[in-house]
Amino acid sequence: MAFALGIPLSLPRSALAEGNETLTRARAAWDRGEFDSAEPLYKEALDRGGLSPSETLDATVHLGASRAVLNKKKGALSAFRQAALLDPRFKVPSEAGRKAVQLANQARREEAKIGPYVLRTEVPETVPANKAFRVTASLDATHAALVTKMAVLAREPITDKSFEKSDAASTSVSFEIPATVAAGDQTVTVRLDAFDARDNRVVSVEKKVKVDPAPAEPPAVAVPTTSPANNAQAKTAPDWAKPIPEPKKDKDDSKKGGFWASPWPYVIGGVALAAGGAALYVATRPTDDVAVGGAAVRVR
């Protein structure tokens, strides 16, 4: 048997079968009108434990009704008070008679100040796949003192994976449902219970939790990194392995070179060249006197 903080998670299957089997025999005795036999059988079914909330209520009401028929007023009131905590709207079997109805109404009035069990739960509507999630069950202080433990049962229907755990009764108890139960695209059933001292469930709340499928992982993107070792290697790399740097360009090439980059040197050079040509012509021009043979001719 599994335990949580020393508290059994559930009764052995034999005990559960005996509790339900005894309840069946008690109902049969009631139907036959054998109230003296039905009364101890209903008590035995409750003592064996393992009953669901509806079975617990049915056995408790019929226990009170049997005692009322047998004129056990004190015992009938005690049973009807317990029934009022389970559900104040419980109905007394008509065959139990008027006296049983009167005792039931008295028990309801006495327990009205306390009220029925109300189990408040915090259960997420949706959870991501393959992720653990938390649920919480809460009772007010008065009702928490009347139960012995609180438990959770989570079941995934496709693979039939389940998880159950219990803890000592308190005003608030939290349970973590493991990731193994929330696998794939499905719905997990989560039931939270409060138990009496005989391990009967006095109140239960069941919720559905939708499991969203796991999102696809995005492709990994390689991010280049530079380590100190890479920096050292880059510094010692041969010249032929280094990238050729692009020549730097001035922001304004028209300003590069100053005077010599302007058209003035060409203008001045052209003027000087023309002047030199004129001087050469003057220096080499023939004179006005021309001599032919022995005769001299002057040209005027």
- Measured by DSSP, the beta-strand proportion falls in 15-25%
Instruction: Identify the CATH class of the domain at 8-111.
Output: Mainly Alpha
Q: What CATH architecture label of the domain at 8-111 applies?
A: Alpha Horseshoe
Largest sheet: 5 strands, mixed
Within the largest sheet, what's the order of strands?
4-10-9-6-7
How many H/I helical runs?
A: 8
Over all CA atoms, what is the radius of gyration?
A: 53 Å
Task: Note the run of SSEs as H and E.
Answer: EEHHHHHEEEHEEEEEHHEE
The helical percent reads 25-40%
Please provide a written account of the structure.
With 300 residues, this protein is of the alpha+beta class. Among the domains are: 8-111, Serine Threonine Protein Phosphatase 5, Tetratricopeptide repeat; 120-212, Immunoglobulin-like, CATH 2.60.40. It has helices spanning 13-31, 35-48, 53-69, 73-86, 98-111, 141-144, 228-235, 264-284; strands at residues 3-4, 7-8, 120-122, 126-128, 133-138, 149-156, 161-168, 172-177, 186-195, 201-212, 289-292, 295-298. The longest helix is centred in the last third of the chain and has 21 residues, at 264-284. The protein is elongated, with a radius of gyration of 53 Å.
